[in-house]
Amino acid sequence: MSTRPTACALTLGLATFFAVPSFAADDESVKKDLTAVIALQGLPCGEVLSVTTRGDNDHIASCKDGNRYHVFLNAQGRVVVEKQ
């Protein structure tokens, strides 16, 4: 009887271990996407160094040059970039 809970705990631990790299890959993807969105709006940034996600399609991007931007979708589904 004790092997089943041990196997379940081991499986959960391994799943958590392998899930961590996928979050890092997603974070890098979001940084690149936000860098492109900010550049397309003609705003200075250079490169997004960190992202704080506030919700679905709602982010605060901190840029290499020190600028911060709130990037989100408005009610009409358009991308809005506001300097913070």
Keyword list:
84 residues, alpha+beta, 4-stranded antiparallel sheet, 1 helix, 45% helix
What report would you give on this structure?
The chain is of the alpha+beta class and 84 residues long. The protein has one domain. Helices cover 45% and strands 30% of the residues. The chain has 1 helix and 4 strands, in the order αββββ. The protein is globular, with a radius of gyration of 18 Å. The protein starts with a helix and ends with a strand. About 24% of the residues have low confidence.
Q: What's this, in brief?
A:
This protein is an alpha+beta fold.
What is the count of helical runs? 1
Q: What is the CA–CA distance across the termini? A: 57 Å
* Mean pLDDT, all residues: 79
Domain module tally = 1
Based on CA atoms alone, the radius of gyration comes out at 18 Å
Question: Uncertain regions: pLDDT < 50 for 5+ in a row?
Answer: 6-25
Q: What's the shape?
A: globular
Helix content: 40-55%
